[in-house]
Known about the structure:
Layout: H1 3-14, H2 20-28, H3 34-44, H4 49-101, H5 103-116, H6 128-148, H7 155-164, H8 169-199
Amino acid sequence: MNPIIEFFQGLAAQVPDLLQPFIVAAAGAIPFIEGEISSIIGVWAGMNPVLAGIAGAIGNFVCVTVIVLLGARARRAVVTRRSASRELAAVGAGVTAESASGDSPTDITAEDKAAEGHLGEGEKPESKGRVKFKKFLTRFGVPGASLLGPLAIPTQITSTILVSAGVKTSWILLWQGIAIIAWTTLTTLIATGSLALLSG
Length: 200
């Protein structure tokens, strides 16, 4: 078992009942644990399954929200800076010189490639999970990719990819929230059923 999962499982089992939801929520904020595993930790620590699921989902969603909002702000700053430099280049060198240098079209293409995850020279290849998620995004759009994304990579990473692709913040948060609730509910039910079978 993952040492981080073991740590949270042991901690959730040892702290008073009042603190357990906070431990589960904190675990839910960690990539690769998220709401799904954190709710299982809570159930196995003896928490009420509904409370464990809600705590795990909240921790996961709060982390995703922070990542999306910070990522969107950073993206806006980069896009604004690039737009300002293009305008300065157009004014200073003229549209013809800009076209000859290939500044504007090249920047747009580079930006599009970055959003789509293409690589330039000397860059590391993308992980299989990222590649799989981008295929989900191309094929099913934001809703399908958000719901299927946890099969490939954590919601924190899928959210970052969606922000970098320029998807509207509210749309990302809506579908990531739906995905977190769906997956956390599923794993909570599985954990509760497994525990009932083992104890019965």
